[in-house]
Amino acid sequence: MGIVTWPAWLETLLPMVVKITIILALAPVGMMYLTWFERKVVARIQDRFGPNRVGPYGLLQPLADGIKMVTKEDLIPDGADRLCHFLAPILIVVPALYLFTVLPFGEGIVAVPLVTGLLFFVAIGSTEALALFMAAWGSRNKFALLGALRNAAQVIAYEVPVVLALAAVPMIAGSLNLNEIVRAQSGGWFVATPWGFTAALLVTLGGLAEVNRTPFDLAEAESELVGGFHTEYSGMKFALFYMAEFLSTLALGALVAVLFLGGWLGPKFLPGPVWMGLKTMALVFVMVWIRGTWPRFRIDQLMGLAWKVMVPLALANLLGAALWSFCPGAAGWLASAALSVAVFLVTTQLWLAPKPKTPTHWAGKY
Q1: Of 36, 52, 244, 325, which has the maximum CB count within 10 A?
Q2: 30-44: average pLDDT
Q3: How far apart are CA 290 and CA 362, in angstroms?
Q4: Over the stretch 209-249, which tens digit does the pLDDT of each residue have?
Q5: What is the DSSP code string of 73-114?
Q6: What letter would DSSP give residue 5?
Q7: How far is CA 30 from CA 18, 71, 298, in A?
């Protein structure tokens, strides 16, 4: 019998298909248990027990919630655009799943090793705003439309500092390939540098704003907009919006781990994928911690933080990264740190400065 040879294109495509299939199979399970993890952590912060009835430690609660969502009635408003209303929950989940295809979870463990992996991640992540607007427009609901408009303004505002902060990483690593960025940290994690620490904070906060996590969740503020963009959704369609949010949060944690915490690199007593998972979950824990402790911003505070603080700080951080790269030793480190601290102190004072009171037309009449 002769040796069977596979076409070159099939040898390239088949491993990708297998890895993407694994991602598609594990993503819903991961999302379900992220909800359990968040409910448990927030419950401990608020001195409660959290899920503890279905299964040991409430571990079967996500399965019960999934069954409930699948069996609930799908309600569609009479005046809704049925096509947009139906497609929006699907289109918001697809980009969240795509994000994992370029994230390396170990040496060579990546579904699609793109040379421009970082650029792909940023481009795909920004498309979720289109699905949110489609959901609101298709619902024919004013609360939903206001939430979508808030989200559009929020994504535009926070995409600028996030991209500027991310630009410092390939500038130092010399590549947009996420595998190469991890390897560039073999001598030390980027977060241990002044520019890396600042960029990690900017990317984390900006990412939370882009995925509508507290305290940036003004697109679905229940005290003002009922439910925001998903007001008119129920059942499994409603669950898909939260699936996208939790998957995007997990992808954000993985991206920050890859860019600033050395990805799969770590002491040899644990394999690389385990280190990657631990770093990712540590960052997700911080995001849940933020949700359980910080109150929601006002819209003016939210936009002011992006334009008055984060954009100038991200621009200064690019210069700080250049100083760190071209000035060896302590001089470059101190110059980079001093620049970031100075810009942060100045911009936060401008952001927090009280606004002058505007006199009304009837002032002094009574």
Answers
A1: 244
A2: 90
A3: 43
A4: 888 888 888 777 766 666 677 788 888 888 888 888 889 99
A5: -----TTS-HHHHHHHHHHHHHHHHHGGGS--SSTT--SS--
A6: -
A7: 18, 21, 32
